[in-house]
Amino acid sequence: MEKIQHLPIYATAYVFVREIYRIKLKLPRALKYDLGKVEFESALKILKCIILANRSQDKQSHLSCILLETQVQWTFLRLLFDLRGLTSGEFKVLSERLSEIEKQAQAWLKWQQRMQSQGPPHSTKRQ
User: Fold this and answer.
1) 57: CB partners within 8 A, 6+ apart
2) What is the CA 58 to chain-centroid distance, rounded?
């Protein structure tokens, strides 16, 4: 198990959460306490699932959670953009980060499935 701070997906998600929080603070009151709040909570859930996946033997459920929350985030980002809570530049940057998180989670999930299908390593040591 690798230290969480060294995982690229963690670093990307951490920056994403920080950016979402910064944007939430500048949203108009009507958006800040509704859509801004649930978007930030969803972003935190992505970060939490990354931490749990790193600590867990069976990572599949946590990685699936990350992939589900990225889909939720796509919807929230689009809504915020359409409601003028995000500039086109902010939307672009957040979309790129979210896409990167999604790609890394999919690759991690494929790796986990490959490891499970191979089973535990067999000892070839003779006695």
Assistant:
1) none
2) 18
Q: At what angle do helices 35-55 and 88-118 cross, to 10 degrees?
A: 30
C-beta of residue 35 within 8 angstroms of C-beta of residue 85: yes
Burial (CB count within 10 angstroms: exposed 0-12, middle 13-18, buried 19+), residue 63:
buried
Q: What tens digit of pLDDT does each residue of 52-101 get?
A: 999 998 899 999 999 999 999 999 999 999 999 999 999 999 999 999 99
Cβ atoms of 108 and 65 closer than 8 Å:
no
- Topology (CATH) of 4-115: de novo design (two linked rop proteins) (1.20.1440)
Condensed to tens digits (0 to 9), the pLDDT of residues 9-41 reads 999 999 999 999 999 999 999 999 999 999 999
